[in-house]
Every structure is written in structure tokens, then in C-alpha cells.
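Hi support team,

I submitted a single chain yesterday and got back a structure, but I'm not sure I'm reading the C-alpha cell output correctly. Could someone confirm the output below corresponds to the sequence I sent? I've pasted both exactly as they appear in my results page.

Thanks,
R.
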Amino acid sequence: MILADVEGAKYNVHFHYCIYDGKRTTFCTIHRFPCLAKMRPCGTIPAATGHAECSHRDEFRKSTGRKIALARAMKILGIPRPKRAEIWTSYLSKVNGT
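Hi R., thanks for writing in. Yes, this is the structure output for that exact sequence:
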């Protein structure tokens, strides 16, 4: 998924899911350069990866895991708060189809 801020900067965002340490986990990788490979994770550097672990008590929902993992990846990448808001707007418009 490619997301953009209002200045037109593009961010490649990938999600993948697995069981990590016995918990269902969502990983989000975000980077500014074209992908090195079609597999996920794509291995492009520099990149930031955020993750969200689902508790055994909770129901696994991809949408919830994606939001948490994306927020963590953007924070790790050091994207300023105003730019994160623009990326969220782009993400939500793609997810909601608007």
C-alpha cells in the first residue's frame, strides 16, 4: 500500500501477520523507497517496523492490529506528528474506499 502526505511524499506500507512467541502478531513495515522484493517483509532499508500483539483474551482483528502497528512504525521512523496525521488520512481513505 502506498500512502502519501499533502506534500506528495510517498510511503510504502506493508502488513504481515504471524504467530510470534505464541501470540498472533501484526507487523507493519514502512519505508520511503521502492520495494526490493515482492515478498513480505520486503527487506528494503532504511525502514521501520512496528508490531501489535494480540492478547490471548482478545479476539484477533486485522484492522486493530494494523492501526496499532502502523502508529508504532511511524513513531519509530520519526515522522513528525503533523505528517503522521496526513498519512493517517491517506490510510483511512484507502481502507474505507473514499
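A quick pointer for reading it: The mean pLDDT is 85. Let us know if anything else looks off.

Best,
Support desk
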